[in-house]
User: What shape does this take?
Amino acid sequence: MELTCPIPDNHFDKITIAHGGGGKLSNQLIQDVLVRELDNRFLHPMHDGAILQVSGTIAFTTDSYVVQPLFFPGGDIGKLAVCGTVNDLVCCGAMPKYLSLSFILEEGLEIFVLRKIVSSIRETAIKAGVYIVTGDTKVVEKGKGDKIFINTAGIGEIIPGMDIGAHQIQSGDKIIINGSIAEHGIAIVSSREGLEFGTTIESDSASLQGLLKALYDAQIPVRMMRDPTRGGLASSLNEIAVSAQKGIILYETEIPILEEVKGACEMLGFDPLYVANEGKILFFVPQEFSLQALQVIKDQEFGHNAAIIGEVTTGKPLVTLKTILGSHRIIDMISGEQLPRIC
Assistant: This one.
């Protein structure tokens, strides 16, 4: 992606209603804050939409981000918006290419906060290898928003031969996760509430297209992928079990979780199986490829703590946890939401 010239001294320090009016202030906001950070050959024409180059089958997704606080250990709302949309495309078996980016800004938002978020978006997009190609900005009156909301949409090209979905899952398939769970949700709640756990727990927010590419390059078949965000590991696996009409067994002893996260969950009364993740993917692979797949994932930047955490069975579409004691308990889908506003 192309880099741009430095940001000039700004002539305003807070968002006003006039910044959403389509006139000079709107143009100044777009040019001085957004375009200067995000400009590239697709965005540069500044049409009402983007003219894109794609080939073959594409994946398309959209998501909105309303997280509070805007900045948290390991990330911010801008990084989250890019990573979340990139990972949704990856879980479709696609290599991400293009993103749209739309802001809803509240009157009174400090411009330096917006600059910091846009800079984070730029850095994350460059690392993920995606282009921001179109977008929109709206301003709402003070008290009618919450500083900033972000909507993104993404387009990716399906990797040839990839057919990802619950319909592909077979009994005996192994389930791999690329690292420890529950870090994002705990990072958000600790930052939001000013909680201290003796150490800083950082969000795991990351773009994971490299994991998919590595598995493809190693010619390892992947039947299903899912990023366990809201509702965490348990809710994601329940959705998959119902869609596939297969049973799933989790091995409690194999699920990676940092000791500080485990301690925080115990203190707060949370079950880490239901706490959100933003840099994790569940991979369903044939049993005969599972050890090779695990090693390939471990060799990647965001896969060092990967583990085989379960398998698919022929039973009822339920998720069962084999506990440390060897007993079994059913893991239901979460009925509400443990942590609001985590993405």
